[in-house]
């Protein structure tokens, strides 16, 4: 009975240890942002390569895959930012500069996807515009969560600038979603 109690206590302590949140580092957040930036570029390139007429189902589904990959990375980034906590001014500036660097790319992708709605609607298989709309809504939610986590972790003097970037990107999502609604 004593052995069983010790075994139960050991498993309980192990479970608590595994369930405890793991503290992340600013370096991990920066790596996440680099990954997000890379995936935003990949998505933007795929959208730009999709023709205004005569696109293929394969290319449209590749855009969906790129969006799904970005969603996963955004969620990981959000988790890591929350686990890192508040950052100092130097790290906050580095993170803000990294996000600012890919802001034009995500806005270009959103503008491009909105402009190409007729091309997606013209594909011989229906449902692609609905799939893109679902991706846009999910990406908007995931991007918003990531932005809010970054704003919460930012030093006080950077929160305003970070909020402006988040609002600009959100407005880009609103425009793209409106094109598919």
Automatic annotation (TrEMBL):
What keywords are annotated for this sequence in UniProt? Signal
**Segment forming the signal sequence:** 1-19
Q: Which GO terms describe its cellular component?
A: extracellular region
Superkingdom field: Eukaryota
Protein's recorded name = Hydrophobic surface binding protein
Source species: Mycena alexandri
């Amino acid at each position: 009975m004593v052995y069983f109690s010790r075994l139960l206590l050991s498993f309980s302590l192990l479970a608590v240890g595994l369930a405890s949140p793991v503290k992340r580092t600013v370096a991990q957040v920066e790596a996440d942002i680099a990954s997000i930036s890379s995936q935003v570029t990949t998505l933007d390139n795929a959208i730009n390569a999709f023709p205004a007429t005569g696109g293929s189902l394969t290319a449209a589904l590749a855009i969906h895959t790129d969006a799904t990959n970005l969603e996963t990375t955004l969620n990981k980034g959000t988790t890591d930012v929350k686990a890192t906590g508040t950052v100092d001014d130097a790290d906050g500036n580095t993170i803000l500069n990294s996000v600012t660097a890919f802001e034009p790319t995500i806005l270009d992708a959103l503008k491009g996807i909105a402009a190409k709605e007729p091309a997606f609607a013209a594909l011989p298989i229906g449902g692609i515009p609905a799939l893109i709309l679902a991706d846009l809504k999910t990406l908007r939610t995931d991007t918003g969560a990531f932005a809010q986590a970054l704003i919460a972790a930012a030093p006080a003097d950077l929160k305003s600038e970070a909020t402006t970037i988040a609002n600009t990107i959100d407005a880009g999502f609103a425009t793209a979603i409106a094109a598919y609604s």
